[in-house]
Predict the 3D structure of the following.
Amino acid sequence: MAKKGRVFSGARPTGRQHLGNYLGAIKNYVALQDEYDCVYCIVDLHALTTMEEFEDLKQNSAEMALDWLAAGIRPDETIMFVQSHVPQVTELHTILSMFTPLGKLTDLPTFKEQVAQQPHNVNYGLVGYPVLMSADIALYKADTVPVGIDQASHIEFTREVVRTFNFRTKKQVLIEPQMKNTEYLKVLGTDGVQKMGKSLNNHIELAATPEETQAKVMTMVTDPQRQRRTDPGRPEVCNVFTLHKPFSPNEVAMIDTECRRAGIGCVDCKKILAKNINAHLEPFRAKRAELAQDPQHVWDVLHDGAKRAQTIAEVTLAEVKEAVGLPL
Ligand code: SF4
């Protein structure tokens, strides 16, 4: 079947993925494969902008790739690779940086946030981060980038860089990507307050055992107003309920009703959730365990993806160099 276009998406190598990664990105990555040529990149160079220790970087890339494969990324049709394996991206980054005013980069709210977060490490790469991201997208001539509403400004930045490049070189070499708005589920952590994340240790790993999953679910914070079993609850403010929506489609209506009239207690409600998460992830975990038996396989997949990515990258880079007058 003819595909609609080419999707690019990148994610930082954060190691073993959790439910937030799964519901917020991976599920969507898997679904997009049916309609688009997909290019999925583990952006390890981006990760360097905020890292202070480097020992885990390589292993984190491998663990993330394992999760992607186990979740259903099909490497025969989808290009799945590690960013640093395709050095053309750094060349394009350098060239595009000449088309990007410095003030524009330092004015970006994301840059200011990052400076506030790591004032001791405001490195050059951090400033150029959006240019490298633009190079990622432009290099593979992706016409579609899936984004949640909070990432729209990043893609708008890429569109502007591409427009500037094409305008100044008077060549339509690069493609202005379109945003594909996606319903991303923002998943809170077990604390029920912050976004699920490893650094906060409020996460539930996809590859956790059923027992570990159940133990984590049982610690989840629920509706704070529901102090006693007899108090009616408010599912709309409860993170357990948020997770019931994707994992308990057959029970979510019942839980909504019973929670409101104190017909179900939080302990039982969580047990149902843990059971359903475990059932849903059973095939994923079986496949992951199988893939993990051969650690070289995941690197073979990533190297093969990088080779295919380079084939596209070389063509784009040659066109870009020609457009700016660099000798080939
Ligand atoms: S019964 Fe379920 S949905 Fe209601 S407050 Fe407790 S955990 Fe949340």
Observations:
- The longest strand covers residues 6-11.
